[in-house]
């Protein structure tokens, strides 16, 4: 009986599964924060697309107004 208890205490295979579970939970939380609706990544991406859209719109307006003159 004592040898079985010692063997159980030396067995670390369950610890690996727990570590993977903690890692998966941490990664899921990180993905939620990064790609959430108000996350930093989404806000920066939305800002960059708005800047690009404004640049495209203003460059198109400049061409039209200089061609009309």
UniProtKB/TrEMBL annotation:
The chain crosses the membrane at residues 20-42. It holds the Pfam family Flp_Fap. Keywords: Membrane, Transmembrane, Transmembrane helix. The keyword Transmembrane helix applies. This is Flp/Fap pilin component. It comes from Thauera linaloolentis (strain DSM 12138 / JCM 21573 / CCUG 41526 / CIP 105981 / IAM 15112 / NBRC 102519 / 47Lol).
């Amino acid at each position: 009986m004592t040898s079985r208890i010692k063997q159980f205490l030396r067995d670390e295979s369950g610890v690996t599964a727990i570590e993977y579970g903690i890692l998966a939970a941490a990664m899921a939380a990180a993905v939620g924060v990064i790609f959430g609706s108000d996350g930093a990544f989404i806000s920066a991406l939305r800002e960059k697309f708005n800047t690009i859209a404004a640049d495209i719109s203003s460059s198109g307006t400049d061409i039209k107004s200089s061609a009309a003159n």
